[in-house]
Amino acid sequence: MTEPGSSSSDRVVRIEVFLDDRPEAVQIVTAPPFRFQLDTTGLDEGAHSLRVVRIDASGGRRERRIPFHVEHASDVEVRGLEPGATVSGSVEVDVVVPPPPAASLPKPKGPPTWLYLLMTVLILGGIWVFFMVVPIYSNLVPAPSEGGSTASAPSTPAPPVDAALLKAGEQLYTSDCAACHKPSGEGMPPTFPALAGNSFLSDATATVKRIYEGSGAMPSHPSYSAKMLAEVATYIRNTWGNAYGGVSVADAAAAEPSASNTGAAPASGSAPAASSTGSSGASAGSAAGSSSETTPSGSTSSTSAATPSSSAGSTASGASAQPSTTAPAAAAAPSGGIDKATMDAGEQLYEAQCTSCHQANGAGLPPTFPALAGNAALSDATAVVQRIFDGKGIMPAHKTLNVQQLADVATYVRNSWGNAFGPVTAEQAAQAAPKAAQ
Protein backbone atom coordinates (compact mmCIF):
# COMPACT_ATOMS: atom_id res chain seq x y z
CA MET A 1 0.00 0.00 0.00
CA THR A 2 1.34 3.45 -0.84
CA GLU A 3 2.90 5.24 2.14
CA PRO A 4 1.14 8.43 3.29
CA GLY A 5 2.71 11.54 1.86
CA SER A 6 4.37 9.72 -1.00
CA SER A 7 4.93 11.85 -4.07
CA SER A 8 5.40 8.95 -6.50
CA SER A 9 1.89 9.51 -7.85
CA ASP A 10 2.97 12.90 -9.20
CA ARG A 11 5.68 11.35 -11.36
CA VAL A 12 4.94 11.71 -15.08
CA VAL A 13 4.96 8.32 -16.80
CA ARG A 14 4.06 9.40 -20.33
CA ILE A 15 2.95 12.26 -22.56
CA GLU A 16 0.28 11.78 -25.24
CA VAL A 17 -0.08 14.26 -28.11
CA PHE A 18 -3.33 14.63 -30.10
CA LEU A 19 -3.99 16.75 -33.20
CA ASP A 20 -7.28 18.60 -33.56
CA ASP A 21 -10.13 16.27 -32.50
CA ARG A 22 -8.52 13.04 -33.64
CA PRO A 23 -9.05 10.22 -31.10
CA GLU A 24 -5.68 8.58 -31.76
CA ALA A 25 -2.50 10.06 -30.33
CA VAL A 26 -0.02 11.18 -32.99
CA GLN A 27 2.88 10.95 -30.54
CA ILE A 28 3.46 9.06 -27.25
CA VAL A 29 6.58 9.91 -25.23
CA THR A 30 7.36 7.70 -22.21
CA ALA A 31 10.69 9.02 -20.95
CA PRO A 32 12.27 12.42 -20.50
CA PRO A 33 13.17 14.59 -22.25
CA PHE A 34 9.52 14.74 -23.39
CA ARG A 35 10.26 16.05 -26.88
CA PHE A 36 8.57 15.27 -30.20
CA GLN A 37 8.52 16.47 -33.83
CA LEU A 38 5.31 18.05 -35.18
CA ASP A 39 5.03 17.57 -38.97
CA THR A 40 2.52 20.00 -40.53
CA THR A 41 3.26 19.19 -44.16
CA GLY A 42 0.25 16.91 -44.40
CA LEU A 43 -2.18 19.34 -42.72
CA ASP A 44 -4.62 21.58 -44.54
CA GLU A 45 -4.03 25.29 -44.33
CA GLY A 46 -6.02 27.02 -41.63
CA ALA A 47 -6.66 26.73 -37.89
CA HIS A 48 -5.62 23.65 -35.97
CA SER A 49 -5.05 22.71 -32.34
CA LEU A 50 -2.54 20.56 -30.48
CA ARG A 51 -3.70 18.76 -27.32
CA VAL A 52 -0.96 17.58 -24.93
CA VAL A 53 -2.01 15.14 -22.19
CA ARG A 54 0.22 14.45 -19.19
CA ILE A 55 -0.38 11.15 -17.33
CA ASP A 56 1.17 10.59 -13.91
CA ALA A 57 1.86 7.34 -12.05
CA SER A 58 -1.46 7.43 -10.19
CA GLY A 59 -3.43 7.64 -13.43
CA GLY A 60 -4.12 11.37 -13.10
CA ARG A 61 -4.43 13.28 -16.37
CA ARG A 62 -3.72 16.91 -17.11
CA GLU A 63 -4.01 18.41 -20.53
CA ARG A 64 -3.33 21.62 -22.41
CA ARG A 65 -4.72 22.66 -25.80
CA ILE A 66 -2.57 24.89 -28.01
CA PRO A 67 -4.20 26.49 -31.09
CA PHE A 68 -2.02 27.21 -34.12
CA HIS A 69 -2.39 28.19 -37.78
CA VAL A 70 -0.92 26.37 -40.79
CA GLU A 71 -0.02 28.26 -43.96
CA HIS A 72 2.00 26.54 -46.64
CA ALA A 73 4.31 28.58 -48.86
CA SER A 74 2.83 29.26 -52.31
CA ASP A 75 4.80 29.14 -55.56
CA VAL A 76 2.41 31.66 -57.20
CA GLU A 77 2.58 35.43 -56.57
CA VAL A 78 -0.33 37.73 -57.51
CA ARG A 79 0.31 41.43 -58.08
CA GLY A 80 -2.34 44.12 -58.59
CA LEU A 81 -4.98 42.65 -56.30
CA GLU A 82 -4.29 42.62 -52.58
CA PRO A 83 -6.18 40.33 -50.22
CA GLY A 84 -9.33 42.03 -48.94
CA ALA A 85 -9.01 44.98 -51.40
CA THR A 86 -12.08 46.85 -52.70
CA VAL A 87 -12.01 47.23 -56.50
CA SER A 88 -14.22 48.38 -59.37
CA GLY A 89 -14.00 48.46 -63.11
CA SER A 90 -11.14 46.78 -64.92
CA VAL A 91 -8.17 45.70 -62.77
CA GLU A 92 -4.88 44.56 -64.25
CA VAL A 93 -3.54 41.56 -62.36
CA ASP A 94 -0.10 40.02 -62.85
CA VAL A 95 0.53 36.42 -61.90
CA VAL A 96 4.21 35.80 -61.28
CA VAL A 97 5.47 32.25 -61.38
CA PRO A 98 9.04 31.11 -60.70
CA PRO A 99 11.23 31.17 -63.83
CA PRO A 100 12.14 27.82 -65.31
CA PRO A 101 15.46 26.42 -64.18
CA ALA A 102 18.46 27.55 -66.18
CA ALA A 103 19.63 25.21 -68.84
CA SER A 104 22.10 22.81 -67.37
CA LEU A 105 25.65 23.07 -68.56
CA PRO A 106 26.98 20.20 -70.59
CA LYS A 107 28.57 17.54 -68.50
CA PRO A 108 32.33 17.56 -68.67
CA LYS A 109 33.84 14.65 -70.46
CA GLY A 110 35.32 11.95 -68.31
CA PRO A 111 38.82 10.60 -68.51
CA PRO A 112 39.70 8.94 -71.78
CA THR A 113 39.21 5.21 -72.16
CA TRP A 114 42.94 4.50 -72.24
CA LEU A 115 43.25 5.94 -68.72
CA TYR A 116 40.63 3.51 -67.41
CA LEU A 117 42.53 0.63 -69.02
CA LEU A 118 45.79 1.79 -67.45
CA MET A 119 44.21 1.97 -63.99
CA THR A 120 42.77 -1.51 -64.39
CA VAL A 121 46.20 -2.92 -65.33
CA LEU A 122 47.84 -1.24 -62.36
CA ILE A 123 45.25 -2.58 -59.92
CA LEU A 124 45.44 -6.12 -61.24
CA GLY A 125 49.24 -5.90 -61.26
CA GLY A 126 49.23 -4.81 -57.63
CA ILE A 127 47.08 -7.77 -56.64
CA TRP A 128 49.45 -10.15 -58.46
CA VAL A 129 52.50 -8.65 -56.73
CA PHE A 130 50.80 -8.99 -53.33
CA PHE A 131 50.21 -12.71 -53.76
CA MET A 132 53.74 -13.18 -55.04
CA VAL A 133 55.11 -11.92 -51.71
CA VAL A 134 52.78 -14.03 -49.55
CA PRO A 135 55.71 -16.18 -48.32
CA ILE A 136 57.36 -13.02 -46.98
CA TYR A 137 54.10 -11.84 -45.42
CA SER A 138 53.45 -15.20 -43.80
CA ASN A 139 56.79 -14.99 -42.00
CA LEU A 140 55.49 -11.91 -40.20
CA VAL A 141 52.51 -13.82 -38.74
CA PRO A 142 53.25 -16.67 -36.30
CA ALA A 143 51.84 -19.97 -37.47
CA PRO A 144 49.36 -21.70 -35.14
CA SER A 145 51.01 -24.08 -32.74
CA GLU A 146 50.44 -27.78 -33.13
CA GLY A 147 48.12 -27.76 -30.16
CA GLY A 148 45.79 -25.11 -31.52
CA SER A 149 45.40 -21.45 -32.43
CA THR A 150 47.63 -18.74 -31.03
CA ALA A 151 44.59 -16.48 -30.50
CA SER A 152 44.16 -15.61 -26.85
CA ALA A 153 41.05 -16.67 -24.97
CA PRO A 154 38.48 -14.03 -23.99
CA SER A 155 39.78 -12.08 -21.01
CA THR A 156 36.39 -12.04 -19.25
CA PRO A 157 34.30 -15.10 -20.11
CA ALA A 158 30.60 -15.00 -19.32
CA PRO A 159 29.73 -16.40 -15.88
CA PRO A 160 28.47 -20.00 -15.97
CA VAL A 161 24.71 -20.50 -16.14
CA ASP A 162 23.07 -22.58 -13.41
CA ALA A 163 20.52 -24.82 -15.17
CA ALA A 164 18.23 -24.93 -12.11
CA LEU A 165 18.14 -21.13 -11.81
CA LEU A 166 17.52 -20.82 -15.56
CA LYS A 167 14.55 -23.22 -15.45
CA ALA A 168 13.05 -21.62 -12.36
CA GLY A 169 13.50 -18.18 -13.92
CA GLU A 170 11.57 -19.33 -16.98
CA GLN A 171 8.62 -20.26 -14.77
CA LEU A 172 8.65 -16.86 -13.07
CA TYR A 173 9.01 -15.03 -16.38
CA THR A 174 6.19 -16.97 -18.05
CA SER A 175 3.86 -16.29 -15.16
CA ASP A 176 4.72 -12.70 -14.27
CA CYS A 177 6.46 -11.08 -17.23
CA ALA A 178 5.47 -12.63 -20.56
CA ALA A 179 2.19 -10.72 -20.75
CA CYS A 180 4.03 -7.48 -21.56
CA HIS A 181 7.56 -8.48 -22.51
CA LYS A 182 6.12 -11.37 -24.57
CA PRO A 183 7.24 -15.03 -24.45
CA SER A 184 9.64 -14.15 -27.28
CA GLY A 185 11.21 -11.30 -25.28
CA GLU A 186 10.33 -8.81 -28.03
CA GLY A 187 8.19 -6.66 -25.70
CA MET A 188 5.74 -4.03 -26.92
CA PRO A 189 7.93 -0.96 -27.55
CA PRO A 190 7.96 1.79 -26.58
CA THR A 191 5.86 1.03 -23.51
CA PHE A 192 7.40 -2.39 -22.82
CA PRO A 193 10.92 -2.55 -24.27
CA ALA A 194 12.32 -5.71 -25.80
CA LEU A 195 14.60 -7.87 -23.66
CA ALA A 196 15.90 -9.91 -26.59
CA GLY A 197 19.24 -8.43 -27.65
CA ASN A 198 19.05 -5.71 -24.99
CA SER A 199 22.61 -4.70 -24.01
CA PHE A 200 21.37 -3.28 -20.71
CA LEU A 201 21.16 -6.86 -19.46
CA SER A 202 24.92 -7.28 -19.81
CA ASP A 203 25.28 -5.52 -16.44
CA ALA A 204 24.18 -8.15 -13.92
CA THR A 205 24.14 -5.74 -10.97
CA ALA A 206 22.04 -3.16 -12.82
CA THR A 207 19.65 -5.91 -13.99
CA VAL A 208 19.09 -7.22 -10.45
CA LYS A 209 18.62 -3.70 -9.06
CA ARG A 210 16.11 -2.81 -11.79
CA ILE A 211 14.06 -5.94 -11.02
CA TYR A 212 14.12 -5.32 -7.28
CA GLU A 213 13.79 -1.53 -7.12
CA GLY A 214 11.78 -0.84 -10.29
CA SER A 215 11.99 2.37 -12.31
CA GLY A 216 9.47 4.71 -13.86
CA ALA A 217 6.13 2.95 -14.29
CA MET A 218 7.76 -0.39 -13.47
CA PRO A 219 7.00 -1.33 -9.85
CA SER A 220 9.58 -2.55 -7.37
CA HIS A 221 9.74 -6.16 -6.21
CA PRO A 222 10.51 -5.89 -2.49
CA SER A 223 9.20 -9.39 -1.74
CA TYR A 224 11.57 -11.08 -4.22
CA SER A 225 14.26 -13.04 -2.44
CA ALA A 226 17.87 -13.00 -3.62
CA LYS A 227 17.27 -16.47 -5.08
CA MET A 228 14.26 -15.32 -7.10
CA LEU A 229 16.18 -12.27 -8.34
CA ALA A 230 18.98 -14.59 -9.48
CA GLU A 231 16.47 -16.87 -11.24
CA VAL A 232 14.75 -14.14 -13.25
CA ALA A 233 18.01 -12.30 -14.03
CA THR A 234 19.68 -15.54 -15.19
CA TYR A 235 16.74 -16.37 -17.48
CA ILE A 236 16.40 -13.02 -19.24
CA ARG A 237 20.20 -12.66 -19.63
CA ASN A 238 20.51 -16.03 -21.37
CA THR A 239 17.39 -16.41 -23.53
CA TRP A 240 16.30 -15.21 -27.00
CA GLY A 241 19.91 -15.13 -28.20
CA ASN A 242 21.22 -13.30 -25.12
CA ALA A 243 24.40 -14.81 -23.70
CA TYR A 244 25.41 -12.59 -20.81
CA GLY A 245 26.03 -15.41 -18.33
CA GLY A 246 24.39 -16.53 -15.11
CA VAL A 247 23.68 -14.58 -11.94
CA SER A 248 24.31 -16.46 -8.71
CA VAL A 249 22.28 -16.03 -5.53
CA ALA A 250 25.36 -14.47 -3.93
CA ASP A 251 25.65 -11.98 -6.81
CA ALA A 252 21.98 -11.04 -6.44
CA ALA A 253 22.34 -10.63 -2.66
CA ALA A 254 25.40 -8.40 -3.18
CA ALA A 255 23.54 -6.25 -5.71
CA GLU A 256 20.51 -5.91 -3.41
CA PRO A 257 21.58 -6.44 0.24
CA SER A 258 18.04 -5.70 1.44
CA ALA A 259 16.65 -8.71 -0.44
CA SER A 260 16.21 -11.82 1.69
CA ASN A 261 18.80 -14.53 1.09
CA THR A 262 16.25 -17.31 1.00
CA GLY A 263 12.88 -17.81 -0.59
CA ALA A 264 9.93 -16.40 1.33
CA ALA A 265 7.88 -18.81 3.38
CA PRO A 266 4.75 -20.18 1.65
CA ALA A 267 1.62 -18.17 2.32
CA SER A 268 -1.25 -19.88 4.08
CA GLY A 269 -3.36 -21.75 1.56
CA SER A 270 -1.08 -20.90 -1.34
CA ALA A 271 -0.55 -23.22 -4.24
CA PRO A 272 2.35 -25.72 -4.25
CA ALA A 273 5.77 -24.55 -5.35
CA ALA A 274 5.55 -26.67 -8.49
CA SER A 275 3.17 -24.14 -10.00
CA SER A 276 4.24 -21.71 -12.65
CA THR A 277 5.54 -19.14 -10.18
CA GLY A 278 7.05 -21.45 -7.61
CA SER A 279 10.57 -21.40 -8.99
CA SER A 280 13.19 -23.41 -7.13
CA GLY A 281 10.79 -24.24 -4.37
CA ALA A 282 9.83 -20.62 -3.76
CA SER A 283 6.25 -20.26 -2.67
CA ALA A 284 3.55 -18.34 -4.44
CA GLY A 285 3.82 -15.84 -1.62
CA SER A 286 7.46 -15.15 -2.34
CA ALA A 287 6.86 -14.69 -6.05
CA ALA A 288 4.37 -11.91 -5.64
CA GLY A 289 6.80 -9.04 -5.49
CA SER A 290 5.67 -7.49 -8.73
CA SER A 291 3.94 -7.98 -12.00
CA SER A 292 6.66 -6.34 -14.04
CA GLU A 293 10.00 -7.28 -15.51
CA THR A 294 13.31 -5.55 -15.90
CA THR A 295 13.44 -2.87 -18.54
CA PRO A 296 16.52 -1.40 -20.11
CA SER A 297 15.96 2.26 -19.53
CA GLY A 298 13.30 2.91 -16.97
CA SER A 299 10.80 3.30 -19.71
CA THR A 300 7.36 2.35 -18.72
CA SER A 301 7.20 -1.30 -18.42
CA SER A 302 4.97 -3.55 -16.55
CA THR A 303 4.13 -7.19 -16.84
CA SER A 304 0.84 -7.77 -15.17
CA ALA A 305 -1.93 -7.70 -17.73
CA ALA A 306 -5.52 -7.29 -16.68
CA THR A 307 -5.70 -8.75 -13.20
CA PRO A 308 -3.84 -9.12 -9.93
CA SER A 309 -0.48 -10.82 -10.14
CA SER A 310 -0.05 -14.56 -10.18
CA SER A 311 1.52 -14.48 -6.74
CA ALA A 312 -0.48 -15.11 -3.68
CA GLY A 313 1.41 -13.47 -0.85
CA SER A 314 2.37 -10.16 -2.29
CA THR A 315 0.46 -8.01 0.15
CA ALA A 316 2.37 -5.58 2.27
CA SER A 317 1.34 -7.22 5.54
CA GLY A 318 0.38 -10.70 4.40
CA ALA A 319 -3.24 -10.05 5.20
CA SER A 320 -4.43 -11.89 2.12
CA ALA A 321 -2.70 -15.06 3.21
CA GLN A 322 -5.32 -15.62 5.91
CA PRO A 323 -9.02 -16.22 5.21
CA SER A 324 -11.03 -13.08 5.64
CA THR A 325 -13.91 -12.88 8.05
CA THR A 326 -16.60 -12.48 5.40
CA ALA A 327 -19.82 -13.65 6.91
CA PRO A 328 -21.44 -16.72 5.27
CA ALA A 329 -24.61 -14.70 4.85
CA ALA A 330 -22.86 -12.61 2.22
CA ALA A 331 -23.05 -15.52 -0.21
CA ALA A 332 -26.82 -15.46 -0.06
CA ALA A 333 -26.96 -11.69 -0.42
CA PRO A 334 -24.06 -10.52 -2.62
CA SER A 335 -25.34 -6.97 -2.67
CA GLY A 336 -25.20 -6.73 1.12
CA GLY A 337 -22.44 -5.47 3.39
CA ILE A 338 -18.84 -6.00 2.33
CA ASP A 339 -16.33 -7.24 4.88
CA LYS A 340 -13.63 -4.62 5.53
CA ALA A 341 -10.90 -7.22 6.01
CA THR A 342 -11.66 -8.64 2.56
CA MET A 343 -11.53 -5.19 0.97
CA ASP A 344 -8.27 -4.33 2.77
CA ALA A 345 -6.63 -7.59 1.69
CA GLY A 346 -7.83 -7.14 -1.89
CA GLU A 347 -6.59 -3.54 -1.93
CA GLN A 348 -3.13 -4.62 -0.77
CA LEU A 349 -2.93 -7.24 -3.51
CA TYR A 350 -4.19 -4.77 -6.10
CA GLU A 351 -1.79 -1.98 -5.11
CA ALA A 352 1.20 -4.34 -5.07
CA GLN A 353 0.44 -6.12 -8.33
CA CYS A 354 -2.07 -4.30 -10.54
CA THR A 355 -1.67 -0.52 -10.33
CA SER A 356 1.20 -0.32 -12.82
CA CYS A 357 -1.20 -1.40 -15.59
CA HIS A 358 -4.74 -0.79 -14.34
CA GLN A 359 -3.63 2.34 -12.41
CA ALA A 360 -4.42 3.25 -8.81
CA ASN A 361 -7.72 4.82 -9.89
CA GLY A 362 -8.80 1.80 -11.95
CA ALA A 363 -8.67 3.84 -15.19
CA GLY A 364 -6.25 1.38 -16.85
CA LEU A 365 -4.23 2.19 -19.97
CA PRO A 366 -6.71 1.43 -22.78
CA PRO A 367 -6.72 -0.32 -25.11
CA THR A 368 -3.90 -2.56 -23.84
CA PHE A 369 -5.06 -2.58 -20.21
CA PRO A 370 -8.82 -1.91 -19.94
CA ALA A 371 -10.30 0.26 -17.25
CA LEU A 372 -11.83 -1.52 -14.26
CA ALA A 373 -13.69 1.54 -13.01
CA GLY A 374 -17.24 1.35 -14.34
CA ASN A 375 -16.54 -1.92 -16.20
CA ALA A 376 -19.84 -3.79 -16.54
CA ALA A 377 -18.00 -7.07 -17.08
CA LEU A 378 -17.23 -7.08 -13.33
CA SER A 379 -20.91 -7.61 -12.55
CA ASP A 380 -20.51 -11.35 -13.22
CA ALA A 381 -18.68 -12.62 -10.11
CA THR A 382 -18.05 -16.08 -11.59
CA ALA A 383 -16.55 -14.66 -14.78
CA VAL A 384 -14.36 -12.26 -12.80
CA VAL A 385 -12.89 -15.04 -10.65
CA GLN A 386 -12.34 -17.29 -13.67
CA ARG A 387 -10.60 -14.51 -15.60
CA ILE A 388 -8.28 -13.79 -12.66
CA PHE A 389 -7.45 -17.46 -12.17
CA ASP A 390 -7.28 -18.68 -15.79
CA GLY A 391 -6.20 -15.49 -17.60
CA LYS A 392 -6.97 -14.81 -21.25
CA GLY A 393 -5.05 -13.43 -24.20
CA ILE A 394 -2.36 -11.01 -23.02
CA MET A 395 -3.49 -11.48 -19.42
CA PRO A 396 -1.63 -14.34 -17.67
CA ALA A 397 -3.21 -17.01 -15.51
CA HIS A 398 -2.89 -16.74 -11.73
CA LYS A 399 -2.83 -20.38 -10.69
CA THR A 400 -1.13 -19.71 -7.36
CA LEU A 401 -3.92 -17.58 -5.89
CA ASN A 402 -5.98 -19.51 -3.36
CA VAL A 403 -9.75 -19.17 -3.17
CA GLN A 404 -9.65 -16.58 -0.39
CA GLN A 405 -7.22 -14.41 -2.29
CA LEU A 406 -9.33 -14.72 -5.44
CA ALA A 407 -12.33 -13.60 -3.39
CA ASP A 408 -10.34 -10.69 -1.86
CA VAL A 409 -9.18 -9.30 -5.22
CA ALA A 410 -12.51 -9.88 -6.97
CA THR A 411 -14.37 -8.14 -4.12
CA TYR A 412 -12.01 -5.16 -4.25
CA VAL A 413 -12.19 -4.51 -8.00
CA ARG A 414 -15.98 -5.06 -8.01
CA ASN A 415 -16.52 -2.46 -5.27
CA SER A 416 -13.98 0.32 -5.86
CA TRP A 417 -13.87 3.47 -8.02
CA GLY A 418 -17.66 3.76 -7.98
CA ASN A 419 -18.28 0.06 -8.73
CA ALA A 420 -20.93 -1.53 -6.53
CA PHE A 421 -21.27 -5.12 -7.73
CA GLY A 422 -21.19 -6.70 -4.28
CA PRO A 423 -18.78 -9.03 -2.48
CA VAL A 424 -17.40 -12.37 -3.63
CA THR A 425 -17.06 -15.07 -0.95
CA ALA A 426 -14.44 -17.79 -0.77
CA GLU A 427 -17.23 -20.31 -1.44
CA GLN A 428 -18.17 -18.51 -4.68
CA ALA A 429 -14.51 -18.35 -5.69
CA ALA A 430 -14.10 -22.08 -5.04
CA GLN A 431 -17.06 -22.86 -7.27
CA ALA A 432 -15.82 -20.58 -10.05
CA ALA A 433 -12.25 -21.90 -9.86
CA PRO A 434 -12.39 -25.51 -8.56
CA LYS A 435 -8.66 -26.01 -9.16
CA ALA A 436 -7.64 -23.13 -6.89
CA ALA A 437 -6.04 -24.05 -3.58
CA GLN A 438 -8.38 -23.93 -0.61
CATH class of the largest domain: Mainly Alpha
Structural class: alpha+beta
Q: What is the CATH superfamily classification of the largest domain?
A: Cytochrome c-like domain
Task: Report the total helices.
Answer: 13
| Low confidence ranges | 1-6, 137-154, 263-335
Labels describing this entry:
438 residues; Cytochrome Bc1 Complex, Chain D, domain 2; 13 helices; alpha+beta; single chain; two-stranded antiparallel ribbon
Describe this structure in words.
By secondary structure, this protein is an alpha+beta fold. The chain has three domains: 8-35 and 45-69, no CATH class; 158-303, Cytochrome c-like domain (Cytochrome Bc1 Complex, Chain D, domain 2, Orthogonal Bundle); 311-438, Orthogonal Bundle (Cytochrome Bc1 Complex, Chain D, domain 2). Helices cover 29% and strands 9% of the residues. The strands form two sheets. It has a four-stranded antiparallel sheet, with no helix packed on it. Strands 5-6 form a two-stranded antiparallel ribbon. A hairpin with a 7-residue loop joins β1 (12-19) and β2. The longest helix has 20 residues, at 113-132. It is flat. The two termini are 25 Å apart.
